[in-house]
Write a structure and sequence with these properties.
Elements lengths: L15 H9 L6 H19 L4 H11 L3 H10 L11 E6 L2 H6 L1 H12 L12 E6 L12 E3 L2 E3 L4 H16 L6
Parallel strand pairs: 1-2
Antiparallel strand pairs: 1-3, 3-4
Helix pairs in contact: 1-3, 2-3, 3-4
Length: 179
């Protein structure tokens, strides 16, 4: 069984020089415009690296004339931002009404029991990060469903769920891109 990753295990560092380069494209005319650019800057960093480190947040804060606390508050408020690196594979597990009724709770429990992770966590080996979506992935006719990397897997049982995870990890280790 894999355990939850600590904040420092498998930490993929962010190149702060690249963050400074990204920020150099943001040239606000005044304080108000700088505040309006914060989310765009964070989105660009998050897309580039898959997460935003505290050090990167500090660079954004300094460049746009605000505090690191404000930046961190935004990072932790919006679900799309990550403050820790993702695993090699990323899963959205739908836990909306249709998926819940069709058994997504069994999949959530399987993640805890077999992989040692819960919502927002990454396995200790850095292979899998999961986000439980309490809304809807919009594929209710295939419930329960997950989006693993860029592929949807539906009508899942615990067995087919584990098979999908193992196939994605094996494909990644064999040099193929499962993302």
């Amino acid at each position: 069984m894999t355990q939850h990753v600590s904040p420092t295990a498998n930490r993929k560092e962010i190149d702060l020089d690249e963050v400074r380069e990204i920020m150099s494209h943001f040239k606000p005319r005044d304080y108000q415009e700088a505040q309006e650019l914060i989310l765009s800057a964070l989105q660009e960093i998050n897309e580039r690296f898959g997460w935003v480190s505290l050090e990167a947040a500090e660079i954004v804060a300094e460049h746009l004339g605000t505090t690191a606390n404000r930046i961190y508050g935004l990072l932790t408020f919006y679900a799309d931002f990550r403050t820790e690196p993702r695993g090699n594979h990323f899963m959205l597990l739908c836990h909306g009404m249709s998926c819940y009724v069709a058994g997504s709770s069994r999949l959530v429990q399987e993640l805890a029991d077999r992989y040692g992770i819960r919502d927002g966590e990454t396995t200790a080996d850095g292979e899998l990060t999961v986000q439980v979506v309490n809304g809807c992935l919009g594929v209710c006719d295939r419930a329960p469903i997950v989006k693993l990397d860029d592929k949807y897997y539906g009508n899942l049982t615990v067995e087919s769920f584990n098979e999908a995870i193992q196939r994605a990890i094996a494909a990644g280790k064999s040099g193929e891109s499962a993302k």
